[in-house]
Model the fold of this input.
Amino acid sequence: MTASAVLGLTNTASAGIVYTNPPDLTLNGLWGVGERLIDIDGDGTSDFRIFKRFSIVAYQWYDTYKTVGIQAYGANQIAVSPAPVIYDLGFGLYRTENIPHPLTSGQTIDSNATWEGGQHFLARNAKDRWTTYQVNVWYNLQNRYVGITLDINGSTHYGWIRLSVYGYHDSVTIHDFAFENLPNTPIQAGATGIAPYPPVTQLWESHLLPKSVRLNWLPTPGAHHFIIRGKRKFVNGQPNPIWSYISNNIAGNIGFLDIAGLTSHETYEWEVLANYDSLGTLSGGWSTRSEFYTDCYGPDNIWVDPLTNNTAILNWLPVQGVAGYSLIGREMGGQWHHYLVSPNNTFKMYPFLPASTAFEWKIKSWCDSNFAHSSAWVSDSFATPAVQRMGQDFVHEVTEPPIQNPFYPNPNEGDVYLSDDVMSTLSANAVINIRDLKGDIISTFEGNMISKKLELHHVSSGMYFIEIISNQQQVFEKLIIH
Done:
């Protein structure tokens, strides 16, 4: 026995079940004896022996024996078939064998089994001088379980060993084994005490723009890495069966991936695979699919709070990834006043409102830095409480569109000329603001400072907005300076 390698305890999976999963070990070869000793409970003492042998005995005839079997040491036992198997040897002779019962995953191993110690054949093909007989209960069975008991300090502990037998004796593979650490406690064949590897269950999208998106998922505990795949849901109007593997190795503690280069106004779907080892052999399976539509989206929700007799704060949920917002407001039935709002802002305050007055406002997202793609307007309304009117009006009343082609050229190199139509409407209190993409004012012209030619050579090249307010008129247009 001492010449045989011993398989021993390598992994304690839970307080109840002690599970060992060594590399598969296969006994093969045509001649002689192969065996492995198994130390189930890791106490340094061999508990079982798995063996295969092929032998020829030469008498007047040749006798051959091809055998695969298991042997229990000491007070340990093996679960055998309830009734012995009887073989006809001829000449009125019979042989009985108590064969270990081949269990499938989930079968219960407990005191109700038939238990025996000693050595037992799993599969045998024997030919002697009188006849040939076969023990074929385990013939060519793979991934079946032998029920076992361990005697630990006089207490009985139930367990299992998973084996695969090929042919009668061609080879036998020892896969893994486990036992219940609590005495006299049943165990199911194949039970490891390790929870199944969970799949990712929570997927969602953010930063959703016409050509890009952020894919988000909730990382599963213990994951080594994630694989992400996605596809357009339809191609030429037909379901698309072809997946693109976007990333094959996202660290297990990461829960998002930014994707660019998408096609606008398309439906995409995606899913995540959680792997629990570096090779991807332990997998939680693909998650349920999530899908999204590429477009420019406005805020999901807008509201007014707080609201007093003369002040309103307009609020909206942020849209992640946008370049900014356009916000317009007016007294009900009046004309619109326009604002450009930075992407980091989620509210705008309007003081000095008239009391007992109804207002409406709208907001939309700009989804690119060129301000070429915008969402649909999202609308809301409110009314100030009925108290004495205080302060100035909510908005400057403007026409929409206010004036066609209010300035030229556009783009320009820093010299901007106001149109004759604009010049004819300018009043003594007129204001012209140059705003950057965040909505901040970077240059202002007021009253008699305004001339037909506005010099903006001090302004860096880029995209801006020009806002002209005069005589109840307003212009709000994109301005490009080279």
